[in-house]
Design brief:
By secondary structure, this protein is mostly beta strands. Helix content is 0%, strand content 59%. The strands form 2 sheets. Strands 2, 4, 5, 6, 9, 10 and 11 form a 7-stranded mixed sheet that branches. A 4-stranded antiparallel sheet has the order 1-3-8-7, with no helix packed on it. The termini are far apart.
Length: 119
């Protein structure tokens, strides 16, 4: 069974930094796609960043140059380093993995971690 557990959220002033972690179990991190998403109150969930098979990364325009996604294959953990945080980054942050199992493409989500940036 695939499980994702996020941690590292909290309250930070504008301009500050946070590092989110997503610990994965039941999958091989090095061969799946991991993504960070966020959902602000009253808004749709949006993609923030992805890392594919522990290597190639992509970012949403609002976070380019400020956020960095990375992974530790040995620990099956993905990270999201968030710098120069803005109040509009306030949201619940979720990690998601997409993987192959039994010939099917499946997805699994974590429960999320709250990030609040004060102005």
């Amino acid at each position: 069974q695939v499980q994702l557990v996020e941690s590292g959220g909290g309250l930070v002033p504008a301009g500050g930094s946070l590092r989110l972690s997503c610990a994965a179990s039941g999958i091989d991190f090095s061969i799946v796609t991991m993504g960070w998403y966020r959902q602000a109150p009253g808004k749709q969930r949006e993609l923030v960043a992805t890392i594919i098979r522990g290597g190639r990364t992509d970012y949403a325009d609002p976070v380019k140059g400020r956020f960095t996604i990375s992974g530790d294959n040995a620990k099956n953990t993905a990270f999201l380093q968030m710098n120069s945080l803005k109040p509009e980054d306030t949201a619940v942050y979720y990690c998601k993995t997409v993987y192959e199992s039994g010939g099917h493409t499946l997805a699994s989500w974590g429960r999320g971690t709250q990030v609040t940036v004060s102005s």
